[in-house]
Amino acid sequence: MNVACDGPSGRGPWMGRVIRSQHISNLKYEGYINQKCTAPIIDLFNNEAISCSISECPTMPMIDDILMKAFARLDAGTNPVLHSDQGWQYRHRWYQYQLREFGIIQSMSRKGNCLDNACAECFFGTLKSESFYTSKFKDIDELKIAIEDYIRYYNTRRISLRFNGLSPVEYRLKSYPGRN
């Protein structure tokens, strides 16, 4: 993706990805295996998880949920790029219409090239290794709470060497004082 990232939360490109992750697929529910899908939007300025949703399978209501959460965080007059893979959800007319309505520029990866979505893939790897490999969840509600808690931690407390020991939110606030 050849897009310059010129600012936080709504000014630079966002990355969206729906994946059926093996790690999330293998969460244990009372002794049996159940698949789940999760979809985050990552701000490429500071790697902050802007929004995330989880469901039984990738559906348009799931995508609507993450878009509405992300749109609520947009600064007025900004037109970020939302980059995704070529999943059916992102080629859907309704999805493209929603992006146009909010002034979002759509970008899609090349077919079969996971490197175009490296930031989202890295987020999933971090989520898996730091939170779920040894966890067991009784139901999807418990899983959702765990993911929400992890994202809160990831955004506000997990430091990054790339950002000189600051969390994604701290880096955004330091880079642009006075902005939420």
UniProtKB/TrEMBL annotation:
<feature type="domain" description="Integrase catalytic">
    <location>
        <begin position="4"/>
        <end position="176"/>
    </location>
</feature>
<dbReference type="GO" id="GO:0015074">
    <property type="term" value="P:DNA integration"/>
</dbReference>
<dbReference type="GO" id="GO:0003676">
    <property type="term" value="F:nucleic acid binding"/>
</dbReference>
<dbReference type="Pfam" id="PF00665">
    <property type="entry name" value="rve"/>
</dbReference>
<protein>
    <recommendedName>
        <fullName>Integrase catalytic domain-containing protein</fullName>
    </recommendedName>
</protein>
<dbReference type="InterPro" id="IPR012337">
    <property type="entry name" value="RNaseH-like_sf"/>
</dbReference>
<dbReference type="InterPro" id="IPR050900">
    <property type="entry name" value="Transposase_IS3/IS150/IS904"/>
</dbReference>
<dbReference type="InterPro" id="IPR036397">
    <property type="entry name" value="RNaseH_sf"/>
</dbReference>
<dbReference type="InterPro" id="IPR001584">
    <property type="entry name" value="Integrase_cat-core"/>
</dbReference>
<dbReference type="Pfam" id="PF13333">
    <property type="entry name" value="rve_2"/>
</dbReference>
